[in-house]
Recover the amino acids of this structure.
């Protein structure tokens, strides 16, 4: 006998009252941040928002669909430069944002085409080449300001009656929340299921009626859309864009963010984006830690070149990734789930 | 009435001709078995029918429509579903998700409608709930309740076979192709599988084509049997006639046919 259940329970955004309450508390906290912290911290949160948005999209491609992209900085660049040009031309911010996302999305769909034939390392090379090409092409074109880049005018935020920084913060937060809900819906809908099906077995996916061409292209397009939105916000955040920002290193860091957060999970992308931003800002300070910092400086002076200490961020990021892959394959999301389980059982 | 007609199909791989000028027709509502020694070309026939391979020549028609050379997803949409000899599951997904993927084609909402997924009265939510009910029907039919929310890689082999069968059933096909449904099952699981297959035909009215090495299963379920060897037809007919046929016995020589 089947117990009649309300299946909507399983697809709603908040499955339990507790999760709704916690989310509301978290939103309240986000709302209060500008009243508690200095402006500097607002920009840290803004940076987190950017990384979260790009990670959400990349995770759909890598974690859910099982494809790879080593060129995601290319999509971010396309979003950022589209936004820069449109904002300079005086196009309102809302339209700029959407168009930046769509332009990147379109390019993503095109880049998705080779993914129909290529797998694993071959696809990695194609996307790698794409990322590098975008950087080079933008750097060569006068229209994009060449290597000097483009300035981005401040957008009009006077309507809010708050300071520019605070309003910008709220704008970033709201867009990030919307993008998070979008990613959640994609993953839990028929579209996300089709992505995951392709990841697990493309043969089985095609015999269950999933059009591989359609869905692989869609996955690239969706992922690029997120990166394009992230790029537009990036332009707004930095107030100027140069091709050098969107380097291979950026693409690699996005992949690292997704792996750190947890492949295929929205919570993972959010946690990964937040933690990776903090790591990037804080890891350089590791040289100021007593003893350990001295040891690193010493090692750097003896085995790396003297300027190698600047790269310590990358070295430590790499180390953290290796540890994650070895000991916590589900990333921060895995740790998060375990904490939740623990608290569910607490205090028994 | 003939629902699936295979005419003169040929399929080669480099030097090997896996299927050579093979023709047969399956009637609506029957259980049709294909037998033959290892490497006879049985699985290749299935792969041609459901579009994973494109036959070198010959035609395949389904419900009067030529489906030769269509992509697998088109053929699935047309009403042919299948299982695989070596399981092709969405192994990191749960039983329920695997069955919901069986409902993929029938789940009709667009990417735009997906945006309102969170609202109970949206088209997307209604569709999801409807398809969930269909998937639950299959779970109930195959008694998969204990495994509903477990990732399928963690399930015992016999259960994985059932999940794959369930996914094919969830597609509500007109015809079901089963490639060695009893392979790797113990005696009890095999008895259950025979029961499910008969149930699927008798209760759901789905036409079934089954490839099987286990002769007891073939005897128990088949209305008609086709024996092939080296990609060619040996004989076709009732179970008794085919299993008594000299050419079939010779093809299986060394393997106990009974
Ligand atoms: N993709 C392929 N590439 C090359 N050769 C293939 C391919 N698929 C099948 N073959 C060959 O075609 C022949 C028939 O294979 P098939 O899998 O159809 O046999 P079968 O009757 O299903 O055998 P079994 O009972 O062992 O499953 C074999 O010689 C096999 O090696
Ligand atoms: Mg076979």
């Amino acid at each position: 006998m089947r117990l009649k259940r309300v299946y909507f329970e399983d697809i709603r955004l908040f499955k339990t009252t507790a999760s709704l309450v916690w989310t509301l508390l978290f939103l309240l906290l986000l709302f209060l941040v500008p009243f508690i912290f200095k402006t500097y911290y607002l920009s840290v949160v803004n940076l987190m928002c950017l990384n979260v948005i790009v990670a959400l999209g990349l995770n759909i491609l890598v974690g859910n669909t099982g494809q790879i992209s080593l060129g995601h900085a290319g999509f971010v660049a396309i979003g950022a430069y589209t936004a820069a040009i449109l904002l300079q031309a005086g196009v309102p911010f809302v339209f700029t944002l959407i168009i930046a996302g769509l332009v990147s999305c379109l390019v993503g769909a095109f880049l998705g085409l080779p993914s129909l034939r290529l797998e694993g390392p071959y696809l990695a090379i194609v996307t790698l080449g794409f990322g590098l090409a975008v950087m080079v092409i933008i750097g060569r074109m006068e229209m994009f300001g060449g290597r000097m880049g483009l300035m981005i005018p401040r957008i009009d935020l006077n309507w809010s009656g708050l300071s520019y920084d605070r309003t910008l913060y709220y704008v970033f937060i709201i867009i990030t929340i919307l993008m998070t809900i979008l990613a959640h819906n994609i993953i839990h809908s028929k579209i996300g299921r089709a992505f995951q099906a392709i990841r697990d077995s493309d043969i089985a996916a095609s015999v269950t009626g999933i059009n591989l061409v359609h869905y692989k292209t869609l996955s690239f397009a969706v992922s690029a859309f997120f990166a394009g939105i992230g790029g537009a916000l990036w332009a707004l955040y930095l107030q100027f864009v140069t091709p050098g920002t969107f380097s291979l290193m950026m693409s690699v860091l996005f992949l690292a963010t997704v792996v750190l957060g947890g492949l295929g999970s929205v919570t993972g992308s959010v946690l990964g984006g937040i933690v990776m931003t903090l790591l990037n800002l804080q890891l350089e300070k590791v040289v100021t830690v007593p003893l350990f910092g001295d040891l690193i400086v010493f090692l750097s002076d003896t085995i790396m070149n003297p300027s190698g200490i600047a790269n310590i961020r990358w070295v430590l990021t790499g180390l953290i990734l290796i540890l994650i892959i070895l000991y916590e394959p589900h990333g921060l999301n895995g740790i998060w789930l375990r904490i939740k389980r623990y608290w569910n059982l607490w205090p028994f | 009435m003939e629902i699936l007609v295979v005419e003169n199909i040929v399929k080669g791989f480099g030097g090997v001709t896996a299927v050579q000028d093979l023709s047969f027709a399956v009637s609506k509502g029957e259980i049709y078995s294909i037998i033959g020694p290892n490497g006879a070309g049985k699985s290749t026939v299935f792969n041609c029918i459901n579009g994973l391979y494109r036959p070198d020549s010959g035609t395949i028609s389904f419900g009067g429509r030529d489906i030769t050379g269509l992509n697998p997803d088109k053929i699935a949409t047309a009403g042919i579903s299948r299982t695989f000899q070596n399981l092709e599951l969405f192994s990191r997904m749960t039983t329920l998700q695997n069955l919901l993927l069986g409902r993929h084609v029938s789940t009709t909402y667009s990417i735009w409608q997906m945006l309102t997924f969170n609202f109970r009265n949206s088209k997307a939510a209604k569709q999801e709930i409807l398809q969930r009910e269909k998937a639950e029907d299959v779970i109930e039919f195959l008694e998969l309740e204990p495994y509903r929310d477990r990732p399928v890689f963690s399930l015992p082999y016999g259960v994985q076979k059932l999940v794959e069968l369930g996914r094919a059933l969830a597609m509500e096909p007109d015809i079901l192709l089963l490639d060695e449904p009893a392979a790797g099952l113990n005696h009890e699981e095999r008895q259950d599988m025979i029961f499910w297959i008969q149930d699927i035909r008798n209760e759901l009215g789905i036409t079934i084509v089954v490839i099987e090495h286990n002769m007891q299963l073939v005897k128990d379920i088949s209305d008609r049997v086709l024996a092939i060897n080296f990609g060619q037809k040996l004989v076709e007919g009732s179970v008794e006639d085919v299993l008594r046929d000299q050419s079939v016995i010779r093809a299986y020589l060394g393997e106990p046919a009974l």
